[in-house]
Amino acid sequence: MKYKAKNALLEVVGLLLFATLRADASTTVTLNGSACPVDAVITRDVCVIGGGASGTYAAIRLSDLGKSVVVVEQQDRLGGHTQTYTDPVTGGHIDYGVEDWHNLPVVLDFFARLNVSLVTQSNSVYGTSQYYDFSTGKSVPGYSAGDPTPGLTAYAAQLAANYSYLEEGFGGIPYPVPSDLLLPFGEFVIKYSLQSVVSLIFSVSQGLGNLLAQPTLYVFKSFGLGIIQGFEEGYLTTAANDNSLLYEHAYAELEPNVLLNSTILLVNRSSPNEANVLVSNPSGQTLLKCGKLVFAIPPKLNNLEGWDLSLSELSLFGQFTNSAYYTAIVRNSGLPSNITFVNVSPNTIYQIPKLPGIYEISPTGITGLLNVKFGSSQTLPDSEVQQQILSTIANLQVAGKTPGVPSLAVYSSHAPFELAVSPSAIAAGFYKELYALQGQRNTYYTGAAFHTQDSSLLWQFTEALLPSITDS
Ligand SMILES: Cc1cc2nc3c(=O)[nH]c(=O)nc-3n(C[C@H](O)[C@H](O)[C@H](O)COP(=O)(O)OP(=O)(O)OC[C@H]3O[C@@H](n4cnc5c(N)ncnc54)[C@H](O)[C@@H]3O)c2cc1C
């Protein structure tokens, strides 16, 4: 209620702001009784909010289709979860966010368009795996992940026979929703004897939070047919071992139509033909007059301050909960640089560890630097995650470990990560209503909450959305 009241107030303030703008189309507007400078006005066919995987793709494709665009991004770079660390000593690159893509036409076309070369990914950098209980620091002798094949085969058969529409998004879900999609994944595993594939899914679908408690729908979305196909065909990565190149090239093309380090102050979509967005960035306040909006940011209410949310948007976005995913590159760990340390628990079902905690610590190809992936079923303070990462590594009792005090070369929070709603909301038609927002109030929605945490599939999803943006 509090948020609703605040938004209603913002809407009134927004109307005042834009009414004043029309009256005085110069450099100052009155916002809630205070003079509010507007340093620039930019008019574009489409304003893209969020310059991560989906937003960058939308911006490049829409400009290729002849639309004028501007991208609003809160970070100092494009790329979202794609992050690359450049080691100051060796000059080598480590992709510690997005690592790879599917071998799909949309991927090949996008990389060719931005002149970035791809190769088939090799997993040789990860070395051999050793299994430790990270909660005690001790090795788990005799642990074996086992052969996932029987479970994987049965899981893939379920997907192929009944749920292949999930590869395209949530739009194909039939109603009533199949009850298996609503089962906690742990129950689905037992129902179909999928036990042998659980640890594989846990390690591939990192970031999902409590895997066994997630509705099966979200596990299918995350670990779908395309992912399974990729095990056979291989995944693609950049030949330069620098995945940020894609977004650097996109930035070079889109600039000066990218507003980095930008905060959205106000969004007003009350006009039938235009959306107005007031943005603050280091060069001042800019008013964007947009024919259409592409919404490509996480739709959590605390990320939408200043938006004139409709009652439907408020109700739908307000239902999302999220898991959290964190990454770091650690130096001075004392651990060997050619072994992946995997967190397993001798005391849990399927021996998957309890979160919050580290999934694994893996080699990076650069001696002395290790890649850490950490998960939680909810957002945690960064200081707590960092402390847990460092203390867990310090506590690992690995034979031959050299003494030293580990430190973070770089750390990144990817929270909120997976956005999910309750099984009852899914059954009640949440995704039907979510998709019904498309095009309303000149706003077109893309991004992981509307499909899945997978850049390649999000580019496909965004591509399919383009005709409705360009045609209307
Ligand atoms: C560690 C990690 C590894 C991954 N590995 C892979 C992989 O190997 N392959 C793969 O396909 N996918 C991978 N993913 C998933 C992939 O990153 C996501 O599916 C994809 O980035 C989601 O795209 P998006 O456009 O929804 O969000 P993002 O790429 O996160 O983009 C959202 C953008 O919006 C910006 N933003 C957010 N809020 C605001 C705001 N209020 N105002 C302005 N800007 C805002 C953000 O800064 C960000 O740049 C990985 C994710 C993580 C975290």
TrEMBL record:
| Superkingdom classification of source | Eukaryota
Under the GO molecular function aspect, what terms does this record hold?
oxidoreductase activity
Keyword annotations for this protein, in alphabetical order, are:
Signal
Protein's UniProt keywords contain Signal: yes
Q: Does the keyword Signal apply?
A: yes
- Renumbered to this chain, the signal peptide range is 1-25
What is an example of a Pfam family matching this protein? NAD_binding_8
Sorted alphabetically, which InterPro entries does this protein's record hold? FAD/NAD-bd_sf (IPR036188), Zeta_carotene_desat/Oxidored (IPR050464)
SUPFAM superfamilies according to UniProt? FAD/NAD(P)-binding domain
Q: What's the protein called, per UniProt?
A: Amine oxidase
Organism field: Cudoniella acicularis
Lineage of the native species? Eukaryota, Fungi, Dikarya, Ascomycota, Pezizomycotina
